[in-house]
């Protein structure tokens, strides 16, 4: 199934108490990076637990088109890289589908190669801003020709970098940071990128693991900088991808909301720059136990035991946004069942995700009879023992997390909830419906 393919409705009715142990698919951010750094490394990178969602398959196809060898053998993926500077001109347009991470990180990579590449994507991705990477990457001498507002399709003509980059980003974005670092890998000397607060650091961790030299620092004002020494020799390494905490969020919230539930989610990535949702849910009164904490290939992982719990509303401060930026849709669903009001602040970035998630959540919850408001960059949800139901299907707008969030809402609401298109779920969580039904959900696609 492909995003932009024929839409397929799905409906979720009241679930039975959830029971069982599940492993959700591999981390999307880490999967993209394993393929990209594998393509830039010398020798073989083997990847266990790679997410085989559409977004990551787009990156795999792009790395192949750029000259790396990428092969799946059973459950393990293998990448034979070309070394820094070794990629070649692709013969066709690179279609990044729904994947902002593929588009922005690959733009960084391509800015260092003196050939022209064309990037495009689906209707959602073609609506998202690329200016945030075009601006820093233009400093390298690379040239970008994009549609109005810096939108895809876009042509990139890279340059053979002679000078390192230095960029202070106005936003905390792992995609912007990683795009600059991917360009910087190809430049002589030190590339520096600073962001107002640390965003997910999978790029930094994996680059170190592959042998790059980089230093990170946290300023007194909270600003975070990475300094990378360019032109390292990256060496292919075995990568073990933990389960995606952003995907674990859906069964976790479902178990909290459906009475009588108790589930275990194994092997979840617990990078502290990703776990803001779990911290927030615990603050709201959720019973989540973190067990068996350990480290795998440079990333912390643990098993989560989640039980149904009564929640209360909280204020989620803007400072927490970078550590849970993809989790606000599902938090808003949890908030709909919490006593009192939940205020989520500092959500400007939510407007430029796969869809405008701030509006999608406020309007979607309202259409289910829940009091929710988007004002400026704040989302407020008034919860309680909700009798939510919807008459017209929720508009998903090619956004996987909007689809999954409302299907979870249906598991705990009085009435069934329908979404107008479940196909986008395949970008990050291919067997979402099967996995949730295995735990006790009652979801199905409506052909
Ligand atoms: C990602 C970074 C985040 C996140 C996205 C994945 C990454 O985007 O929302 O799902 O892998 O670097 P921003 O960099 O736009 O915050």
CATH topology of the largest domain: UDP-n-acetylglucosamine1-carboxyvinyl-transferase, Chain
CATH superfamily of the largest domain: Enolpyruvate transferase domain
Task: List low-confidence stretches.
Answer: none
The dominant shape is globular
The percent of residues in helical segments reads: 25-40%
State the domain count: 2
The number of helical runs is 12
List the helices and strands and how they pair.
Layout: E1 9-13, E2 19-22, H1 28-40, E3 44-48, H2 54-65, E4 69-73, E5 76-80, E6 94-95, H3 100-110, E7 116-120, H4 131-138, E8 143-147, E9 151-157, E10 166-168, H5 174-184, E11 190-195, H6 202-209, E12 214-218, E13 224-229, E14 239-240, H7 245-257, E15 262-269, H8 276-283, E16 287-296, E17 299-307, E18 315-316, H9 328-336, E19 341-344, H10 357-367, E20 371-375, E21 378-382, H11 400-412, E22 417-419, H12 432-439, E23 442-446
Parallel strand pairs: 2-15, 3-14, 6-7, 10-11, 18-19
Antiparallel strand pairs: 1-22, 1-23, 3-5, 4-5, 7-9, 8-9, 11-13, 12-13, 15-17, 16-17, 19-21, 20-21
The chain binds shikimate-3-phosphate.
Task: Describe the model.
With 447 residues, the protein is α+β, with helices and mostly antiparallel strands. It has 2 domains: 9-26 and 242-446, Enolpyruvate transferase domain (UDP-n-acetylglucosamine1-carboxyvinyl-transferase, Chain, Alpha-beta prism), CATH 3.65.10; 28-240, UDP-n-acetylglucosamine1-carboxyvinyl-transferase, Chain (Alpha-beta prism). It has 12 helices and 23 strands. The strands form 6 sheets. The protein has a 4-stranded mixed β-sheet with strand order 2-15-17-16. Strand 12 and strand 13 (224-229) form a beta hairpin. Helix 1 runs parallel beside helix 2 (54-65), helix 3 (100-110) runs parallel beside helix 5 and helix 7 (245-257) runs parallel beside helix 11. The chain binds shikimate-3-phosphate (S3P). Shikimate-3-phosphate binds at residues 29, 101, 173-175, 178, 199-200, 325-326, 349.
């Amino acid at each position: 199934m492909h995003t932009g393919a024929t839409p397929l409705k799905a409906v979720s009715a009241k679930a039975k108490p959830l029971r069982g142990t599940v492993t959700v698919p591999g981390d999307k951010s880490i999967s993209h990076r394993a393929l990209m750094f594998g393509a830039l490394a010398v020798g073989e990178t083997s990847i266990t637990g790679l997410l085989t969602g559409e977004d990551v398959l787009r990156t795999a196809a792009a790395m192949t088109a750029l000259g790396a060898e990428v092969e799946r053998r059973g459950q393990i993926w293998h990448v034979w890289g070309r070394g820094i500077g070794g990629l070649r001109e692709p013969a066709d347009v690179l279609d990044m589908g729904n994947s902002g991470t593929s588009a922005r990180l690959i733009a960084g990579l391509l800015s260092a190669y003196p050939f022209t590449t064309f990037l495009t994507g689906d209707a959602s991705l073609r609506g998202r801003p690329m200016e945030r990477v075009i601006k820093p990457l233009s400093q390298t001498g690379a040239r970008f020709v994009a549609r109005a507002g810096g939108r895809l399709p876009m042509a990139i003509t890279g340059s053979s970098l002679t000078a390192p980059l230095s960029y202070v980003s106005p936003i905390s974005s792992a995609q912007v940071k990683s795009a600059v670092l991917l360009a910087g890998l190809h430049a002589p000397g030190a590339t520096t990128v600073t962001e107002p607060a640390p965003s997910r650091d999978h790029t930094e961790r994996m680059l170190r693991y592959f042998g790059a030299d980089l230093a990170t620092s946290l300023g007194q004002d909270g600003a975070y900088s990475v300094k990378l020494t360019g032109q390292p020799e990256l060496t292919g390494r075995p990568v073990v991808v933990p389960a995606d905490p952003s995907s674990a969020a859906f069964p976790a919230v479902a178990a909290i909301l459906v009475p009588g539930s108790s589930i275990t989610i194994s092997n979840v990535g617990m990078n502290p720059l990703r776990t803001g949702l779990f911290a927030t849910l615990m603050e709201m009164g959720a019973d989540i136990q973190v067990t068996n904490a350990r480290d795998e290939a440079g990333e912390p992982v643990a098993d989560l035991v989640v039980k149904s719990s009564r929640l209360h509303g909280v204020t989620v401060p803007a400072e927490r946004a970078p550590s849970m930026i993809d989790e606000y849709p599902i938090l808003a669903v949890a908030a709909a069942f919490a006593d009192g009001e939940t205020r989520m602040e500092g959500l400007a970035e939510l407007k430029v995700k796969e869809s405008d998630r701030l509006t999608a959540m406020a309007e979607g919850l309202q259409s289910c009879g829940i009091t929710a408001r988007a004002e400026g960059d704040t989302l407020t949800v008034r919860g309680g023992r909700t009798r939510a139901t919807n008459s017209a299907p929720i508009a998903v707008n090619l956004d996987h997390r909007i689809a999954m969030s409302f299907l979870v809402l249906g598991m705990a609401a009085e009435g069934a909830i329908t979404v107008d298109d479940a196909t986008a779920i395949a970008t990050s969580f291919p067997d979402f419906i099967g996995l949730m039904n295995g735990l006790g959900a009652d979801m199905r696609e409506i052909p």
